[in-house]
TrEMBL record:
This is Pyridoxal phosphate homeostasis protein. InterPro entries: Ala_racemase_N, PLP-binding_barrel, PyrdxlP_homeostasis. The keyword Zinc-finger does not apply. The modification N6-(pyridoxal phosphate)lysine is found at K108. PROSITE patterns: UPF0001.
Length: 312
């Protein structure tokens, strides 16, 4: 079987809004078919990093080129394909034909060559990064039609750098009204042609260590974004949730809380279709069952990561 890349997945994005309409959700079955390819079709790509020294400083283990081996590409595409199949099966078992979910491949700490391998061999284009410097580096080196999700803790003094990334798809981690305003201003400086999509990050589990606003603050912040941040588009809500949720009737209470926030905001602000970004490697199937439209999967695709403290 040969490699089929769906043109809409890989073509250059002329307008972010236009692209969003076309493939707002890369439906799961597309991947399923897209992912069939033979090992022979894997070519090794060599593009030397422009700023290899910076990348090296940032990621000690990071390779200094975008070269990947056929074996690594195959492994990554197989992993991605497995996740897609599991997503598909979960949505099928739920029997809700209306629900579509996007897969965000979380590539933090992983070399740009891994991202390029996934992108070239599967056509997958949604990737998530947690660290501004790493996102900035990778976005410069990698294809311009990759759709980046910023999913890390957003610092006010980094908003300008984030907003200046042209192929930034969404900032998933806006955690206060003040941060929203800072990001809104940064979008003006960056002269973005369309409002920047944002999700509000909600600390549904109430853990001190988690970032995000509390559920009861979400409506006020949402209101602020809609009324006072013309360069942002409120597109959804995001949560991480407790790593050890108390499962009541099989439901994750944190995902339930995010659904409640969505209902409250949609009703009060008379808006519809807010996305729910919830679900990671360990809990994405449950998240899909509870209405997630955007799952963020890292280790199941790319393998385990070094602990944060050992890298920084
Ligand atoms: C790292 C990270 C993920 C991916 O986690 P895995 O468990 O590796 O799938 C998802 N979301 C956020 C916010 C993350 O920081």
């Amino acid at each position: 079987m040969s490699l089929h890349l769906y043109p809409f997945l890989i073509r250059t994005v002329h307008s972010q809004a236009q692209f969003f309409n076309l493939s707002r959700f890369n439906t799961v079955h597309h991947y399923h078919r897209t992912l069939a390819f033979s090992a022979r079709s894997i070519a090794t790509t060599t593009i030397t990093l422009r700023t290899a020294a910076t990348a090296k400083r940032l990621l000690p283990s990071m390779s200094t080129s975008l070269e990947y081996t056929p074996d690594r590409a195959q492994e990554l595409v197989d992993n991605l394909s497995d996740v897609v199949k599991r997503m598909e099966q979960t949505l099928q078992s739920k029997g809700d034909n209306a629900q579509k979910a996007r897969l965000v491949a979380v590539s933090k700490y992983k070399p740009a060559s891994d991202i390029l391998a996934v992108y070239e061999k599967s056509g997958h284009c949604h990737f998530g990064e947690n660290y501004v410097q790493e996102l900035e580096e990778k976005s410069k080196e990698l294809p311009k039609d990759i759709q980046w999700h910023f999913i890390g803790s957003l610092q006010s003094n980094k908003c300008k750098i984030v907003a200046a990334i042209p192929n930034l798809f969404v900032v998933e981690t806006v955690d206060s009204a003040k941060k929203a305003s800072t990001l809104d201003k940064a979008c003006v400086s960056a002269a973005r042609s369309e409002p920047l999509r944002i999700f509000l990050q909600i600390n549904t589990s109430g853990e001190d260590t988690k970032s995000g606003m509390l559920p009861n603050e979400a409506l006020e912040v949402a209101q602020h974004v809609v009324s006072s941040c013309p360069h942002l588009k409120l597109s959804g809500l995001m949560t991480i949730g407790s790593p050890n949720p108390d499962l009541d009737n099989g439901e994750n209470p944190d995902f339930k809380t995010l659904n409640q926030c969505k209902a409250t905001i949609e009703e009060a602000l008379k808006i519809t279709d807010l996305e729910l970004s919830m679900g990671m490697s360990d809990d994405f199937e449950r998240a899909l069952l509870q209405g997630s439209t955007n799952v963020r999967i890292g280790s199941t695709i790319f393998g385990s990561r070094p602990k944060k403290t050992t890298v920084q």
